[in-house]
Amino acid sequence: MLRIKEDIAVYILCGGKSSRMKTEKGLVEFHGRPFLQWILDAVTPLTSKITLVTKNPAYASYGLPMIPDLVEDQGPVGGIFTALADSSSKYNLILSCDIPKISTEVLDSLIQSAIDSDKDVCILSDGKHDYPLIGCYQKYLLPAFQQAIEQNHLKLCSLVDSLRNNKLVISQKDQAALRNINTPAELLSLT
Ligand SMILES: Nc1nc2c(ncn2[C@@H]2O[C@H](COP(=O)(O)OP(=O)(O)OP(=O)(O)O)[C@@H](O)[C@H]2O)c(=O)[nH]1
After folding, report:
1. Does residue 20's CB lie within 6 angstroms of at least one atom of ligand 1?
2. CA 73, 162, 80 angle in degrees (round to 5)?
3. Is residue 69 in contact with ligand 1, taking CB distance under 6 Å?
4. Residue 64 marked in a binding site
5. 78 CB under 6 A from ligand 1?
6. 96 phi/psi in degrees, rounded to 5
7. Which atom of ligand 1 is nearest to the CA of 95?
8. Does residue 92 surpass a pLDDT of 70?
9. Where are the alpha helices (DSSP H) in the chain?
10. Does domain 8-188 sit in CATH 1.25.40.10?
11. According to a count of CB atoms within 10 Å of the terminal CB, is the N or C end of the chain lower?
């Protein structure tokens, strides 16, 4: 059962180079459906405010708002900066486009944890690795992201560590939901 009462905006980052996958990552198919479709299925029960951060017209068929990066070629930090500049919501769920196993339940826990802890940012972790591209970022972080871009500090994990953060460790049974798929080989091993 979903517990969230707050106004949540979701931004899915669909930019970047997909150099390892060699084809547009969000449109790669898993069990006959694009990664993006799996992600949309997980977020739709949480909010109707869903925006794609990309200028690639290949995503236009989804009929969702699309916004181009305000500053190009800055990686995920630039994508999050663009999302926070666009948003009018306090809590912003930022997702990469390469997580087809993500689930509504896991995202619901993340958002609830973000609201309860009220830190600058709440991200998921498996206890060993952090997943800052499954994270809930507060709108007021916009200047921090602007400064990171100006200072060329584009390592998202370091940026998150420099903020007041909360890392929600996901139980082992749910950790498949975190898997991000970057290469054709990783796609083949996905079940
Ligand atoms: N909007 C936006 N999203 C980006 C940008 N760079 C990466 N992303 C997204 O951030 C997420 C993680 O991207 P990465 O896997 O680190 O980079 P990538 O460029 O997609 O892929 P590689 O070239 O293989 O590293 C994916 O959802 C990308 O679509 C960017 O400059 N702008």
Report:
1. yes
2. 35
3. yes
4. no
5. yes
6. -80, 165
7. 27
8. yes
9. 35-43, 75-86, 104-117, 142-150, 156-162, 184-188
10. no
11. N
- Cβ of 23 below 6 Å from ligand 1: no
Where are the chain's structural domains?
Answer: 8-188
pLDDT digits (tens, 9 = 90+) for 68-89: 999 999 999 999 999 999 999 9
User: 155 among the known binding-site residues?
Assistant: no
What is the rounded CA–CA span in Å between residue 36 and residue 83? 17
> Would you say the pTM of this structure is higher than 0.90?
yes
C-alpha dist (Å) from residue 2 to 20, 70, 80, 111: 36, 33, 25, 10
* 83 Cβ closer than 6 Å to some ligand 1 atom: no
Ligand 1 centre from 32 Cα, in Å? 22
pLDDT tens per residue across span 106-155: 999 999 999 999 999 999 999 999 999 999 999 999 999 999 999 999 99
